[in-house]
Amino acid sequence: WNLTYVGQAFMPVASWFNPYVFAGVGYMNAKVSLAKSSVSDQFGGFGVVYGAGLLFNFNQFGVRVSYTVQNESNSAHLDSMSGGHVTIKMPQVKDYISLDVLYRFGA
Questions:
Q1: Engineering a disulfide at 42: which of 31, 32, 76, 80 sits with its beta carbon 3.0 to 4.6 angstroms away?
Q2: Mean pLDDT value of segment 39-53
């Protein structure tokens, strides 16, 4: 799980379209385990979160598409995990694209 706190800056282009940028901090936490094994590891830590996106408004609904970059602290990553004779290398997923559907109550 991740918990982020970001500030956003919108640039209204039209009533239905708003590009935006955001930046803040986040706490990243994960637990990784090998299937059918007692080997597991957990990691977590604070890092910088930033990105940009597009917000489309349609009456009370909205659609938000964003690209997010998470630069985790040195303590918030796990490169490999070993169990018996097996070593697993894990990619660091830091960038992602998200799609959100919004509804505004009372608008």
A1: 31
A2: 83
CA dist 54 and 64 (Å) reads 6
Mean pLDDT of the chain: 81
Q: How far from each other are the two terminal CA atoms of the chain, in whole angstroms?
A: 31
Amino acid code (one letter) for 104:
R
Tokens of residue 68, six digits: 């997010």
**pLDDT tens digits along 78-105:** 555 555 555 555 555 578 899 999 999 9
Instruction: Give the residue with greater pLDDT, 70 vs 23.
Output: 23
DSSP 33-66: E-TTSS-EEEEEEEEEEEEEEEEEEETTEEEEEE
